[in-house]
Amino acid sequence: IQKRIQPNLLLNCTLVLSMAISSVTLRGATFMLSRSTTLCPLHSAANFSSGKQTGMSVAATPSINIHYLGTVSRRVPLSFPSTNRRFFCMSSEAEAPVADNVTSSVSNTDSTPASPSTPSNDPLKDAAGTLDIRVGRIIKAWRHPEADTLYVEEVDLGEPEPRTICSGLVKYIPLDTLQDLNVVVLANLKPRNMRGVKSNGMLLAASDASHENVELLSPPEGSIIGERIWFGLEEDKENQVSAASPNQIQKKKIWELVQPHLKTDSSCVAALGSHLMRTSAGLVVSKTLQNATIA
Q1: Residues 6+ apart with CB under 8 A from 86
Q2: CA nearest 170: which of 151, 197, 189?
Q3: Residue 125 parent element (H or E)
Q4: Which one of 16, 148, 218, 272 has the largest count of C-beta atoms within 10 Å of its C-beta?
Q5: End-to-end CA distance of the chain
Q6: pLDDT at 27 over 50
Q7: pLDDT tens readout for residues 237-272
Q8: Cβ–Cβ under 8 Å, residues 182 and 223
Q9: For residues 128 and 231, is the Cβ–Cβ distance under 8 A?
Q10: Which CATH superfamily is domain 124-136+179-190+199-294 in?
Q11: Where are the domains of the chain?
C-alpha cells in the first residue's frame, strides 16, 4: 500500500493482520516516521498477550523504531471486540536478522489517540495534591507498651472507625495534651507495623533545626473533621485532584519528593514553598515554630 503521509514523503507499508479486513480506513496517519523508514509491518495493539490492549508485541530487528501511525476502523462487522484498532509501524535503519520480540506499552487504550498533556506550571504542587492530608481529632492516646519513644493514638478522620496511629512524640509532647486535640494527618501512607502495632497514618508536626522542639500542626478552629487539606488559595479547594492510593504514594515516592519542601513561614503558617496549607476554615499553623521543617 502506498500512502502519501505528508508532502514529498512516501511510506511503503505492509499490513500484517490476523484476518482479512474487507474495507478499512487509515486515519491520523501523520504521526511519527523515522528518517530511514522502509518496509513497516503493522501490528495491532489488540494482539498484546494481556488481553487488555495495553501494549503490543512485534518481531523486530536491531536498531528499531516503533511509531504510532493511526487507527484502523472497519465498516463491516467482524469478530474484533471493538470497531477501532490502533496500528504501529516498526522500522529498521539497517537490514539484519529478526531479533527477539520487543514490547511497547500503550498507556491510552481508547480508540482515539490521547491529546498531549499540558505541562504543569508547578509539578511539586501537583504532587502534593495527591497526598491525602486531612483534619483529625485524637480520641485517645497512650504510651506504646513496647517502645519508650512512641505514643499510640486513636484518631477520628470522619471514617466509620477511628485510625490507629503511632507517633514518636514522647520526648516532645506531654501525653495529657493529646486528648481531644485537633491534628493534621497524612492519611494515604501504607500501614506500618511499629513494634507490634499497625500504624495507619502519620501526624504532621513542625520541628526546629536542632530537632529539640516539636509541635503538632494545628488546623484552625472550625475545621471539619475528615476534610482534606490543600495548598494554595481559597479557591484552589475546588480544583483538588483525587488522592493517590497508598501503593502509588510508595511506588512514586511522592512523600519523599514533597516533604523536604514543607516548612512553616515567618508567621508559623505551614506551607509548600509559597503555597499556604489550608482547610475550609483558614490556615494551618504551628503554635510557635517559625521557618521549621514539617514531617
Answers
A1: 44, 45, 53, 68, 70, 71, 72, 106, 111, 113
A2: 151
A3: helix 123-129
A4: 272
A5: 61
A6: no
A7: 999 999 999 999 999 999 999 999 999 999 999 999
A8: yes
A9: yes
A10: Nucleic acid-binding proteins (2.40.50.140)
A11: 2-105, 124-136+179-190+199-294
Long-range CB pairs of 268-274, under 8 A, 24+ apart, other chains included: 268/206, 270/184, 270/204, 270/206, 270/217, 270/294, 271/231, 272/124, 272/125, 272/128, 272/231, 273/124, 273/125
Tell me how far apart the alpha carbons of residues 144 and 156 are, in angstroms, rounded to a whole number: 19
- The identity of residue 119, as a single letter, is P
% pLDDT > 70, the chain: 59
Residue 124 backbone zone (phi > 0: left; psi -120 to 50: alpha; other: beta): alpha
Kindly give, in sequence order, each residue whose CB lies less than 8 Å from that of residue 285, ignoring residues fewer than 6 positions away: 217, 218, 220, 264, 267, 268, 269, 270
Phi, psi of 229 (to 5 degrees): -100, 145
Cα atoms found within 13 Å of the Cα of residue 266, Cβ hemisphere only: 0
Task: Identify the helix (H) or strand (E) that includes residue 246.
Answer: helix 246-251
Query: Between 84 and 277, where is the model more confident?
Result: 277
Q: Rounded to whole angstroms, how far apart are CA atoms 56 and 48?
A: 4
In the predicted structure, residue 107 carries a pLDDT above the cut 70: no
